Amino acid sequence: MPSPSTAGRPVTGQPRGGDWPKVRLHVVTGKGGTGKTTVAAALALALASGGGRVLLMEVEGRQGIAQLFDTPPLPYEERLVAVAPDGGEVFALAVDPEAALLDYLEMFYNMRRAGTALRKLGAIDFATTIAPGVRDVLLTGKAIEAVKRGERAGKPVYDAVVMDAPPTGRIARFLNVTSEVAGLAKVGPIKSQSDSVMGVIRSPRTAVHLVTLLEEMPVQETLDGIEELRESRLPVGAVIVNMERGPRLPPDGLAAALNGTLDAAEVKAGVEAARLPRKLNANTVTKTLMVEAAQHAERVELEQTERRRLDTTDQPIYELPEMNGGIDLGALYAMARILRDQGAV
Known about the structure:
Helix content is about 50%, strand content about 15%.
C-alpha cells in the first residue's frame, strides 16, 4: 500500500503533547448524531499542528471524512487531505475489510493472488459475515499497523493515528477483539494478530474518547460506554462535549426567565430601543422574547444537569461550541484550535 514518505521532515514518532502525552492511537466514538466524525477530524488537525503527521481513518464505510474535507471518496489508500496549522499533515484512509483481508493474507501467508480469487468467488465477504470478529480484527489491525509502521527502524511514519470508530453502543465489543476471535482461533496467525492488536489497544498508547451532546440520551450512552470500556479493561480517554451552546443570558436573567419573574416592561423597553421595523408590533415581539427566554433557561438548566453527570466520570472534559455557520474546513480548523487551547494536544 502506498504510504507517505518521511523524507524532508524530522520524524520523531513521539506522541503529541497535551493531556495525552503517551497516546499514539486516539479512538473516537459517540452516539449517532453527536458529530463524532467531525470531532475526529478536528482532533487529527489539532494533533498534526506544529509539524506532526497524523493518519485519520474511518472503519464504517460512510465516507464521512471525504465529505468533511471536500475530497473525492477515499480509496483503500492513505491520502493527504489537509495541512495543519503551523505545519503538519493529515492523511486519511477509509478501511475496507475486504482489502484489509487481502493485506492480511499477503502479510502472513503470501497469498494475495489467492485472496483476489477468493474475492471474485465471494468467499471473503462470506467469511467476514459469518465471523464478524475476524472483520473487527482486520479493521483494528489496520490502525495498529499504522501506529507501528516504521517503529523498528526508529522512524515511525505517523506521530498519531485517529480512528473514527463505531458508535458508543458497539465500541467495547469492536475493540475487544481477543474475546471476539477466541472461539475461532486458539493458535496461529489470526490469534497472533488479535493478541498484537490488543497489546496496543490495552496499553497507554491508546485512548478511547467519547463524543456527546449535553442531552439526556447521549450523556447516558456516554456514561454506559465508559462503564463498559472500564469493565473490558479498555483505556478511557476524554469526554468531548460537542455543539455546546452556552447561556445567552446572565445568571440573574436565567433565574428570572426560569421562574417567570423576567421584567416584561424592561424587555419591551429594549425592543423599542432597537427601533425595529414598524410592521413588527413591540408587544408581540416582547411576548415572543419572553417565551424564548423561558425555553432557553430551561434548556440551560437541563444542560447543566447533564454536565454534572459527566463530571462524575472523573475523565477530562473538552467542550466544542456549536458552529452556527455549519461545518466546513474553516470550522474544522477552529475546532482544532479550541482543542489545543483546552490542552487536548
